[in-house]
């Protein structure tokens, strides 16, 4: 998953991911730097498939994506961008999306944000 870096005067202060970046392993997480356990804000990308797509096809597509992400040139490109890949099968990815939805729903509700 990609994460944001907090920048100050052209120097990174922290990454907002839950874990330190492999690209900058000495850079702390925001949770560490601000002493806020559990703080995590990251960006992620994934393929979302039609709901009625047969499981066998979804699993095969996930396997193909995992194979591509494991290619040395693809991994090197993502590493060069400071991004970490985490290929998943459909069930864990669906659970991750549900977890993200719940997290951000709570933040939006607590902040009193309303659609306009």
Query: Mean pLDDT score, rounded?
Result: 88
User: Strand order across the biggest sheet?
Assistant: 1-4
Reading the helices and strands in chain order gives EEEHEHHH
Low-pLDDT regions: none
Helix content: 40-55%
Estimate what percentage of residues fall within beta strands: 5-15%
Annotation field: number of helices: 4
Structural class: alpha+beta
Radius of gyration: 17 Å
Total beta-strand segments: 4
How many domains make up the coordinates?
1
Q: What coarse outline follows from CA principal-axis ratios? A: flat
- Gap between N and C termini, in Å? 30 Å
Largest sheet: 2 strands, antiparallel
Task: Give keywords.
116 residues; alpha+beta; two-stranded antiparallel sheet; two-stranded antiparallel ribbon; 4 helices; 44% helix; flat
Overview of the molecule:
A hairpin with a 2-residue loop joins strand 2 and strand 3. The chain has one domain. 44% of the residues lie in helices and 11% in strands. The chain has 116 residues and is α+β, with helices and mostly antiparallel strands. The chain is built from 4 helices and 4 strands. The two termini are 30 Å apart. The strands form 2 sheets. The chain has a two-stranded antiparallel sheet.
